Structure formats: C-alpha cells, structure tokens
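Section: Multi-chain targets

For targets with more than one molecule, the full set of components is provided together so that the structure can be written out for the assembly as a whole rather than chain by chain. Components appear in the order listed by the source. The example entry contains three components.
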Amino acid sequence: MSKIKDKIKKSFLARFVPGLASLIKRGPSGWMVILGIIIVLALVIMTAIGPWVTPYNPVKTNVGPIRAPPSSQFPLGTNHLGQDMLSRTLVGGAIMLQVSALSALVCFIIGVPLGLSSSYIGGFLDSTISLVIDAIYAFPSLVIAIAIAAMLGPGVVNMALSIAVVYIPSYFRIVRSQVLSIKELTYTEAAKAAGARWHTILFRYIFPNVVPSIVVVITVNFADAALTAAGLTFIGLGVTYDIPDWSWDLTNGWKYLSSGAWWIISFPGLMIILLALGFTLIGEGLSELLNPKLQR
Amino acid sequence: MANKVFMLSEIVKVENLKKYFPVQKSFLEQLLTRKMSYVKAVDDVTFSINKREIFTLAGESGCGKTTTGRLVVRLLKPTSGQIYFRDQDISKLEGERLRLLRRKMQIVFQDPYASLNPRMTVGDAVGHPLEIHGVAKGEEKEKIVLDVFDQVGLTPPEQFLNLYPHQLSGGQRQRAALARSIILKPELIVADEPVSMIDVSLRTTIIDLMLNFRKELGLTYLFITHDLAVAKYISDRIAIMYLGKIIEMGSKERLFLSPTHPYTQALLSAIPVPEPKRERKMIDLKGEVPSAINIPPGCRFHPRCPDKKSECAIKEPQLMETEKDHFVACHSN
Amino acid sequence: MPLLEIDSLAVDYRTSRGAVHALDDVSFSLHKGETLGLAGESGSGKSTLGLSIMRLVPYPGVIVKGQIKIDETDILKLPESEMRSIRAVKVAYIFQDPMTSLNPVKKIGAHFVELIRTHEPRTSEKEAVERAKNVLKNLGLLSERINDYPHQFSGGMRQRIMIGLAIALNPDLVIADEPTTALDVIVQAKTLDLLEDLRKIYGMALIFISHDLSIILERCDKIIVMYAGHMVEYATSPDLHKAPKHPYTQGLLQSIPNIELSDQKLSAIPGSPPNMVNPPKGCPFWPRCPYAMEICPVKVPPLIVSGQNHLVRCFLYGE
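Its structure, encoded as tokens over all components, is:
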C-alpha cells in the first residue's frame, strides 16, 4: 500500500512542477492560470504573514482619529471605530480564505463520492438522488445560504457549512455527467473485459478522467464561496466585529460612503474582488486548457 | 443445428443466441400502450469455433456481428440462448466466476484511440490485467510487459513503458491493445474490426501479428469485420450475417468459390478490387437494410432479393448444409 | 487548355508547436471531364490539397507558396468576394461525413433552393424547386421527398443528397473527399456508380480523395500518390498498377488484400507514417524504404519524369 502511495506522490509532483512551467507556453489560457495563481498566492501570503507586519493592532480601536482619510501615518485611513485600515486589510482575508477552503473541502468530500457512486450505480437510486440534488440546485444560492446560516448561527465553520450545502450540487452534477459519459467509453469496456472489479474501474479508469473537470469546479467554487461569505456578512450572518474581516469592513464602510469616507469600503472591497478574480482566472484558464484538447 | 454433442476440438459454441434491446418509449407511449418494441440485434444465431481456428463474422453495419462478439466475451448478457466456452455454459455467469473467465478470453477493440485509458501509461495499461488477476506485480510485471512489447513490435520496449496513449501513433496504440489482450495468455481473442481504423499500409502488420500469435500461443480468434477482402485473407471459416441472422456460413474456400445466398453474391460483387477500370458486374439490390426494429416477415432479406419466391415472404429459411462445410439459409437453394 | 493547373503549391499549418508542412511542392494539371485520384494515408495532405483548391483551408493553415489556376485564373490572387462566386458554381466540394454536413432543421428542398438562389439570384422560387426536384430524380430519390428533413434519410441517401448539392449548379470540377468512407460496401458501390453516371451526364472533372487505393485504381483515370505532404508518384491508373515506381506505392499495392485472389502473400510497410510536426529530413519516406540510399536523408528528391506521363519523386530514378 505504501509503495503505491509513494508512486502516486512521485508521479504527481514530478508532473506538477514542469506542468506549471509549461503553462506559460500554452497561450492566453495558460497565462490566465498563472496570473490567477499569482494573485491568490499573493493574497494568501499577505494574510499569513499579515499578523507580523501590521503597523497597528487591527482590532484595537481608536489608534487614530475616527474616519481619517489616507495619510502617511495611516496609508489606508481609519474606519468609524478608529481602527487602522491598512492593518485590517492586511489580515482581513483570513476569514474568507478559511471559509472558502473549508466549504470547498466539505463539498469535495461529500459531493464527489456522492456523484461517483450515484452515477456508477445508476438506476432508481441515481434518479432519486439526482432529483433531490436538482431541487437544491434550483434554489438561489444566497437564499439557501442565508437560511442555513440563520439556523446554525455565526462562526467560520457554520458559514462554511451553509455555503457548502449550496455548492454540493455543482460538484455532484459535473461528476455525474462525466461519469455517465466515461462509463460508456471503450477503455472502460476494455477494463471490464480484462476482468477488473468495480472499484478498480471506478478509481483507476473513471475517476482520473473526471479529475480535470473537478479541478475547474473547485476553483469556481472558491470564487463563489468568497463572494457568498461576503454576502452573508453583509446581511449580518457572518462574523462579529472583533475579528478583522474584509466583508465586515465592506458592510460597515458602506454606510459612510455617502459622507465621503470612501477608503473604508474601497480597500477591503478591492481585496475581495481580487480574491474572486484570482480564483476565476484559474478556473477559466484551466477550463479552456482542458477542453480544447479535443481539437487536434 | 442444436448439436448437444460437444466436439473435443470446439472451444466456443453458440446456440440459438438472441439479444434484444428494448426501445425507449416516450412518456405518452408508456401510458397508452403495453407493447414493447425491441431492436433485435442478434436473432437466433448458432455457430461453433474450433481450437486454433480463425472464425470470421462478416457483414455490413447493423447486422449484429459486433453485438455477437460482445456476447461471446460476456460484456453483454444474452436475452436467450446458450454460449459455451469449452464445455462450460457461460450464458448466465455472473460475479467472480465471470471475472475468472476473463483470463481465458480477451477482446481487441476497433478504435485504438478510445480503447486505452488516457490517464494510464501504456506500460500500466498493458500490465493491468496481470495485476487484476494477481498474476504478477512490480518488477516481475514490468518484465512481462517488456517482453510482450517486444512481441508486438513496440521496440525498444523500455521506451514505451512510461509513454501515454496520446504520445503514440494509431498503429502503435493498436499494437499496445493487442499486447494487452495476449498478456494473460488467453485461449480466445475476439477481434472487433481491429484494423478498420488503421492506415492501410499498417494493417498487414497487425494482421500478421495476430496470425503469428495463433501459431506461437495456440490462440483461437473470433474475427469481426465488414471488409470481406481482409476476411478472405485471414479466415479459416466465415459466417455472413444480415439483420441479426447468419445467412451463409462455411469454409473460406467454399464461401468465396461458390457464394450461394443472393446477399452474399451481391456483397461480393460490390467490393472494390485494386485493378484499374474493370468491367464491374454489380448485383444491384433494391432499397437499403431495414431497421432491426421492424424486421420483414419470412426471410428477412426477401424485400431486396432478386431471386425471391412466394414462400420467402412467409416462412423463414433455416441454415441448411448444401455441400460439405457450407451452410445457406435460403429457399431458392 | 487545362481546367485546373496547380504549380508548386505549399501549405503550412502554423501551430503553437511549430509549422507543419502539410503540403510541399505539389504540381499537376487536370482537364475537363478527367478523373484524378488522390491516394494517401493519414497526414499525407490529400484533404488539405482538396481544401486548398476551394481556398477553404482551416485556421491555422496558410497557403504559403504556389499557384492554383482554374480556367487560367490564379484563384489565390482573387478577393474573397470573387472566390465565393467560384465555389459551388465552378468548383464544388463533397464532404466526408453526410451525417453532419446537412442542416438538421432545414428541409432538403430548402438546401437546394437556398443554394440555387444564392448563386443565381434571378431564379424564382418556383424554378428553383423544379430544379431541385429534378436533381432528386437523378439521384434516384422520390421528388416528393423534397419536403423531408435530413434525419428522415439513411446515411447512403444523405450522401447522395450531398452529391446532388454539389452538382446542382453544374460545376466544372467536383472534389469528393472520402465520400463513401462512412458507408457500407453495397451502398458505397451504388453511390460511386451514381457519381460516375452524373459526372458523365454533366461532363464534370472529378478529384477523388481517398485512402482506399482499390476504389481509386478502379475508378480514376489518373492517380497521384501522396506521402507526408509530398506528391511521390503521378501516373495513369493502368500504369500505376502495372509498374508502380515509388517504393511507397509498391509497398501500398502489396499490402492491399484483393478479394479476387486466393493465397495472397501480403507484406506490410515497416515503421509508421511520420510525425508531421517533426518529419524526417530529406525524403520523408526514407526511414521505411527498403531501397534507402545515402542521399535520401539529405535532400528531398525532385519530381522526375520516368516513362510517358509518369512522374516519381525518388532518387532511384535519377537526380
């Protein structure tokens, strides 16, 4: 067993790094992916080392005048509680990143195996599960997220869970449609003809060919999750005020826009946009790369 | 033709084999009618294959030859009828016993681009049957794979171990598929149009490889093709199928020397010959092959037959032996 | 005066991995009413040649050199608007796959009427329909079927409709690209017979593209054998069959099973068709050639005249 794990790790890494480098050669879609990766990595690193480089304590109130515009002392200004916007912006991504990552993980762990097994087994089971999933999918995502977040209460984990419920259908549907078509392909038949058992067929023949589409869904999921998290916080179902968070600043900064304090909302808002943009670029680029392969 | 005595030299025996596929009904039809319609892909087929023989099922598309091939290797379950492998009835085998049977019979598919998993190296794909049946793993598996690469002409063998299918040409992929089919040293190989999608100049290589393996490994082949010229080159015995039934069957010599059934005659007269501007005497058949859902009554060929008699529309002809090792299903003969 | 004259045609596909030389130095001429077969396997460039004559080479293909003269006019120099009045009117194309070449939401009659009225705008709707019905009759189809949709016809019939569309405007030249590859052998024979009959009635020249050398030998006056984008041999059908000169042609002929012979000894050409992104230097066939000499990997052999109306691209026959 461990020898197999070794082989998998070796082959994956061995292909990942040169694969990344070769992306540059792949034209505009490759550049999109690289640009997206750079943006996301930059934001992640910024959030990670943020706590060590903030000039002021992001949570401490009244470190400066209330609603002060950007200056040399406070390059991004201060908000209505006198907190330094630069410090808050540097570390404000933590919640969103955690929520996105956690919800993506939950979706993957639940949505992918569900999709795989349902479509592989087929029949009545598949029809029933698809029906339920489609019903969830039909709801506007924010509405469901709000409903579940309201039931569960605030907190990172609960936010992640409510978002996950919304996005599991996407994973399920993509995986299912891929499995249904791959099941009929000749190389799957060949595996059956060679005597392979169902788990070999599912995990060595079907799943590896489904992975490319899953990767695309994950990245789109991240982008969407970040925005939905912002939406939840905006409505008041997100985090409390002691944790620095872009969405919280967005929510509160909005009130002060009309009085001219543009800096409270703009910088966190910009960060959220960048985060979503980064993930979307990766997803779009990958989707372009993986699909036109059918060309020549 | 149901012969209960199993000849010692017979390795495969198919009796009254039928495979009907139900046709999907629309919602309204499901409510209003109880009648089911079926695509009668294989409609009462009987034949046997002797050890070390190359038995060919030939015919145009839709005649049922591919479905029959899949039934013999039990990738499909028969609607009715029996399939015997050696003297074991495999028609209703399931689960583990069916899996074990797979070691003894293999299939080579038509499309070299589709029959290899794009996410497995060629070495892994070809060696996978060894793993599946617990025959060999790791280094020992690799050694066998290299040896088999050599046998099919993928040389130097080490080079091909870690290549992916998209890095090989069509001819090379088909060789890899052939390698995969012989690696467990099976007794029977069903070859479903193995050279139709390969360049002309490479076809003979694959065919010669297959003939070679018959000699060296004692293989038996069920060869499926629409190309009668290839069938003539490679076969020992041939069965011509039309709309799910065998209409003529016999040794290669008999079939090509004296084709008896009007369909066989028409088929042979239509085949292009690599000679310039010959005077072609093509037998013209009316119409086209009907759908397998609405099979004509009586002899299913009668609407298009130039030698039609009155009983042809009423009674279905059975395969009768007209001369030694030559069977025809036709009222006019 | 030849109907079609091609001189030193070269076509490249400019891919992200480098230029693929799909065609190199192709030259031949075709007269009114003649049939020419383009024989070759995958990567030979035969389809690209057919598309070049229509100036329909898909992106990223580019015609980099040469002349294509139809009735003395070099069509490579024409603006696109004039080219459109040549396509379907002077030169028509029959595509390989009849399943996808017809518009599934348009009636068959509508296909014909649109074609006729686009190129002959003064034709009334009624006249166009009459002409369409006539064509259908010539195709062996009932003229009442003019209001049926493509899916109501079988594959063989659809290909016949494609042929009908190609000849509807009475072009001088028809290019048929593997027209019967997707069809069963009996339907194939009937379709090719129909094509030949129509061709004789309307007096068209035909370029027949196929990988099936048997069909080409049987039905074409002259044959060009292509390999890796090069013309390697050009001869009449009887000459090519009796005395094939290029080692590739010889190898091909020896690998085709002939249904009228028994106990044939077939032999294969060793190796595989070349990778067109990185073809062998010099003569592209040399790695598989039983007669390869020292000069073969060095430079590409020129087209050499060897016998009457017989061209070979091989150093065995001169320099």
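The CA atoms of residues 175 and 211 of chain A lie 9 Å apart.
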